[in-house]
Write a structure and sequence with these properties.
Length: 126
């Protein structure tokens, strides 16, 4: 069982930056691939970024490539999402998720993930 708590959301102007954190409970954080998703009002949950257990690979959704960076610190049981050059269309609730270690689903699919945080609101003003 993994419990996830996101933080770092807020209101920022377009062009600004935010850094989201997701703290995980338990001693087995390094066993989980981690992902960030977002959901805007009236829209489906959208893949943002993912990172493998050892951080050897990262993946990004097309809308955020070149602007967002996912990283993790296994010693701190934390995954981060650095968001730069923010746009109004990045406004959403951002969720972190921990995967099922034996899942064969793609990192970009919600079906891969077994555990979800409660989300943190990011609002980008124009």
């Amino acid at each position: 069982q993994v419990q996830l708590v996101e933080s770092g959301g807020g209101l920022v102007q377009a062009g600004g930056s935010l850094r989201l954190s997701c703290a995980a409970s338990g001693r087995t954080f390094s066993r989980y691939g981690m992902g960030w998703f977002r959901q805007a009002p009236g829209k489906e949950r959208e893949f943002v970024a993912a990172i493998t257990r050892s951080a050897s690979n990262t993946y990004y959704g097309d809308p955020v490539k070149g602007r967002f960076t996912i990283s993790r610190d296994n010693a701190k049981n934390t995954v981060y999402l650095q968001m730069n050059s923010l746009k109004p269309e990045d406004t959403a609730v951002y969720y972190c998720a921990a995967d099922s270690p034996y899942s064969s689903e793609s990192y970009s699919r919600t079906e891969r993930y077994a555990y979800w945080g409660q989300g943190t609101q990011v609002t980008v003003s124009s």
